[in-house]
Design a protein that fits this description.
Layout lengths: L2 H15 L12 H14 L4 H7 L3 H18 L10 H15 L7 E8 L11 E2 L3 E10 L6
Antiparallel strand pairs: 1-3, 2-3
Helix pairs in contact: 1-4, 2-3, 2-4
Length: 147
């Protein structure tokens, strides 16, 4: 991601994520939150990974992760849309066929377990067999890397 694109995303997310300064603390910058969350989602590491890179406690990252993800969805919902007509889906399949030689493909799918604190009264619903609670984040991209 180029610095200009990152700054453009920060500007669009700022109205949704900006916090007020209180007498107890200065709020974290929107750019810092976005960078930490993008790094967390891209690398697939645990919360301590961005904690050390961005000097933000893992517990704080846990708190603003859903907030940043919701803001991204809200701000970019027009960009993050699926084809709606049969012709649009055929264009996607043709792009995969011509660019990647994957015929009749409509998307590249991948997922990641996002660690989280256990919600109350859910039993083992969110328990991952590797020893922590998580929710699965799944993404589909087209042949041009667009989600």
């Amino acid at each position: 991601m180029t610095p200009d694109l990152f700054q453009e995303i920060v500007e669009k997310l700022t109205p949704h994520l900006k916090k007020e300064t209180t007498f107890m603390r200065e709020p974290l910058e929107v750019g810092l939150k976005l960078a930490a969350i993008l790094r967390f989602l891209v690398t697939g590491n645990s919360y301590p990974s961005p904690q050390y890179s961005f000097r933000v406690e893992a517990s704080t990252i846990c708190k603003f992760l859903p907030e940043v993800c919701k803001a991204i969805i809200e701000v970019f919902k027009e960009v993050l849309s699926c084809p709606k007509t049969q012709e649009e889906w055929k264009e996607v399949a043709e792009m995969f066929s011509s660019r990647w030689n994957y015929h009749n493909c409509l998307g590249a799918l991948d997922g990641k377990h996002v660690p989280m604190k256990k919600p109350s009264k859910v039993g083992s619903l969110y328990y991952y067999y590797k020893g922590f609670h998580s929710i699965v984040l799944i993404a589909v991209a087209d042949a041009g890397y667009k989600f």
